[in-house]
Amino acid sequence: MKLFRKIRHKLILDNKKTQYFKYALGEIVLVVIGILIALQINNWNQSIKDKKSLDEYLIKIKSHTSEDIEQLGELKKGRKQIADICKKARNSILNKTEKENLFLFMASGYAFTDFYFKPNSGGYESLKSSEYYGKINNTNLDSLLAKYHGLVDVIAENERSYNEFTVHQENYLDTQFDRSLILASAFMSRDSLSTKATPQSEYDQAFIEYTAKPAYRNVISLAAWQFDTMIDQYNQLIQLGHQIINEIDAITED
């Protein structure tokens, strides 16, 4: 700055107005260039900070999606096992071989079990409420996340509907049937039951009567076909989850 002042002072003293104006214009240009460079550096630094913050949100979403995929795998396995049992029980009903397959009908009682997919959407909700959500707006990742959480809502509704139906049927059965022998047989060992006055034949007969109730068979029949739909939806969600993870990897590893 001292050098610039000396140059200006010398030009003024020498009465070199034209050269002074050229110098002044050059100095202004230099100042503007300096400001533009400073703004560019500031924008560059801000861009780095914004990307780091966005990446943190995306990495959290990736972690939560991985947890969801693992949970969905377990749900698929459980529903598949129950669906297979219920399909066999349904065939036994159609073939009128229920008494020969008593154990099968006992096992089909797992169709009354509540299964709920509990997604971890914390990362996604945090991103949506942040200033960085706009940075993925109208991108492939935005579309995948919308499809993913839309399907999550569909699955939740299907599970709620099925579980409410089973609870309703089970509550109705409780008003129509004494389940004391069934519960004893289900939770007590054979050795313990053998010490009781009630013979095994009465426990078996209780199961035959209980599993012959329409409310019980309604649940078996529903599980036999609806679980396949639920499993298919789990598979769709798993596929979307892997696509989301791949998309996040592509963004965060840039």
Automatic annotation (TrEMBL):
InterPro entries: DUF6090. It holds the Pfam family DUF6090. The chain crosses the membrane at residues 20-41. Keywords: Membrane, Transmembrane, Transmembrane helix. The keyword Transmembrane applies. It comes from the Bacteria. This is Uncharacterized protein.
